[in-house]
Amino acid sequence: MPDTIKKFKKTLGIKTEILGIFYSVKLPKQGENFGDPACVALARSFFTKQTIFFDAKKYPQSCLGASYFLKLAPIGDQETVDVYTNKEKVFKNRNVCGKFLENLPKFPESLKNKFIIVKPIGNKDRPPVVAMLVDPAQAGRILGLINRDRYEKTEIFPSQPGCLVFFAPLATKKPHINFLDYYDRYYQGKVGGRHIWPEDKMIISMNYDDFKVALANLDESSHGSFRPDLSPKKVTKLWK
After folding, report:
1. Which of 39, 73, 75, 89 has the maximal Cβ count within 10 Å?
2. Which domain covers residue 62, as residue numbers?
3. Which residues contact 216 (CB under 8 A, 6 or more apart)?
4. Residue 95: helix, strand or coil by DSSP?
5. Which pLDDT band holds residue 63 (cuts at 50, 70, 90)?
6. Is the pTM of this model over 0.90?
């Protein structure tokens, strides 16, 4: 598995860590809590290879959105609608926001009150969710690898929060594409005046079985390392 993951990253050109997201009743032996919002915990692990954890009681979230979507605090739908509609102006009215919340995947009840652990995937790890920071081309290739043996559509949820990365694949049983909404990109942290999320990156997360399928298809698919007997078509000059 370690060599396969290394080859996977090299073939697709993924520069950051591939993360495993775990849910546990026990704290990991190693790791830290920085008081980060959930999406910043992802970024810290992607970029620094650190193991990060948080939960509802001992290490609560500083982000109200994460507390709501990950069920880490008793925040109700109406309070969330008020923030999205009146404070942030994401939606024109409460009715539109209500449809937004209604259509989003829901955090599984079986995962409530557990520690959420984010870490680079290890050789023997079998995380419920695997997450990668990718560009559009890499996301398309990964979806192609997963769908080589079957074909299923992937849903996109407009205005979705970054929190869905943690659990959407478990709720929908499908890969999840997350564009990192405006709040996560522009208001959830800067380092030296620079936003923590690169403009050209998004997150794809999936359950572990889908990750194994992508790895297994790497050598056999043109979305991976297989090269079909094709030549790029030549076109007239596009740029000055």
Report:
1. 39
2. 2-216
3. none
4. helix
5. confident
6. yes
